[in-house]
Amino acid sequence: MSAPRQSRERAEQLRRQIEHHNHCYYVLDAPEIEDAQYDRLLRELESLERDYPALATPDSPTRRVGGAPLAQFSAVRHRLPMLSLGNAFSEGDVVAFDRRVREAAGATEVAYSAEPKFDGLAISLRYEDGAFVQGATRGDGATGEDVSANLRTVRAIPMRLRAALRGSFEVRGEVLMYRTDFAALNERQRAAGEKVFANPRNAAAGSLRQLDPRVTARRALRFCAYGVGFTGDARLPRTQVQLLDRLAELGLPVARERRLVRGVAGLLAYYRELAESRPGLPFDIDGAVYKVNDFDLQEQLGFVARAPRFALAHKFPAQEAVTEILDITVQVGRTGALTPAARLAPVFVGGVTVASATLHNEDEIRRKDLWRGDRVVVRRAGDVIPEVVRVDKPGPRRAADRFRMPACCPVCGSPVVRLEGEAVARCTGGFACAAQRKEALLHFAQRRAMDIEGLGEKLVDQLVERAMVDSPADLYRLTIEDLQSLERMAQKSSRNLLDAIAASRGRPLGRFIFALGIPGVGEEVAKVLARHFGTVEAFLEADWGALAERKLELARENAARKRRGQRLEARIMEGIGPELSDSLAKFLGAAHNREVIQALAAAARPADDASAVAKGALGGKVFVITGTLPALTRDQARELIERHGGRVTGSVSSNTDFVVAGTEPGSKLDRAREIGVRILDEDGLRELLGQAR
DNA sequence: GATCCTCGAGTTCC
DNA sequence: CTCGAGGATC
Known about the structure:
By secondary structure, this protein is of the alpha+beta class. The protein has 25 helices and 24 strands. Helices cover about 40% and strands about 20% of the residues.
């Protein structure tokens, strides 16, 4: 039965009123009615929607009480990456930032938008045709988690923008919790015997990551917008200050403390004022954010790595606390590195209780002159990693209190060496060291490597200690009986782990190479290697000496071409220089290592790298062959290109990507020069295919 | 040879 | 997140 007109109109009216009051409360910070009145409106709407479910629109404020719990969050790829900002910790850093901007702008004074830096969680909201459809956490900047259901419960986030914006419109901002709401929440948690949060930021993070949105709905989260992501063809202002005003007009909460300032003097004055007003603000901030106001200038400045050159986060000095070094212990890492860590008397600093801090290496300890029993100043560097800043007051300093790097590995007893010119001391036990075997396994299983879910520290400890697993290859031989003999591993957990191990078969070659844990080979280098070689076999058979030579040749060639103003040739394995080549050659030169990798590859069966083999560096690229090639017949060349995913055609056009030219080329070569198509010789082709000769 | 940038490695707490 | 070192560039 459809709802009577009267009810329909009333529901619509209520929705408008409620959103209006949300706006007054959360955006304008100027409520017009009492909370009780607001609740009455909401309850009336709820009851109407109960009677006539057809009235319950997807953007209804009643939805804000939270829907059904989720099993897990799904991943959301950000249409535009969510970047992080460069940090400034001193006025000098800010002066340098302003100087770089002015130099690039060719101006004597630049206008900036200055805003508070909220201590919350960055999120991205997507509106379609003005209606909220999805919200995601920042994640790693490229991919975040879909927390839409939780964000719907955040009343400061409008479900509908106050303008008919067609298409996609992404808003970027921060989810946070007011200090008073945080205190009240902890009060409730304590009363209910549940865990209390260390600070508002953690409370906000914990609330946003709830799988049950009804819990989030009770958590009084706020939101503040500070920018946009993908905005389609929405017509927007061309300065940051005006953009923020526009976001406010659209019904989004925007920091009141935002301001347009001029020059470095303006930035620093803003910073000081903000620092002064900080204690009186209802929420935590950890600094100021400066953005070049003019978007054209922003674009001109561009990006360095993952951070924009046109913006800066000016952090407040980290909070410091004083505590005592109870002991200095040593940990053994995957590469055998012995890392000293200070065990501290627990101390509350920067929102959490810190009990230990890394001391990096021996030199660092000497530089800071740290002894067991010293009273030291501790802070959380960059708000995360605890750091021992300096000695506050020396302890008794008996001879035994001085730190000495052990001569033998505390885990396996092998000799410890510190190579000339290196900062770290290493255990020489290698594979014989249980600590290194454990770390190697954890590295192998970690998410960015083979991603074996559930294989964590506790489990690896047991597997290694009981000698059930020595190397990663052994993982693939585990049986359910093996696993069930372990602590806390009954039928179900064992099954899950076996499934997870099985699921790690067929991972991309790049991950596999990364998972091997070869010194100096991280995620990026592993990817480069995978793209270059395509298969485990090719990787194992590589002739590193020849490669190094070709790299040198190519570098010389490129230098020569550059002098002549010609286009540079593609490079071979960018990012892999002499050091890495040597280290790889040595590692893969050892028969033992090659055998282990072969056995592991047979068990884990990594997938050949598509960009080198199937699609090729050539994925769909169009080739034309002309002239006689030194080693290949035309048919062989065609076959080679096609096997790597390229196409070979007969005539040169604007669609042609490469012309492969041999001796006595025809008119096709002239035509290629004319249109500016890239020309390769046979060697160039092989390079493209990632093949050594 | 100097300088800037990127990547790897180690790390803390919830 | 930070530090150090390798790699690229001028």
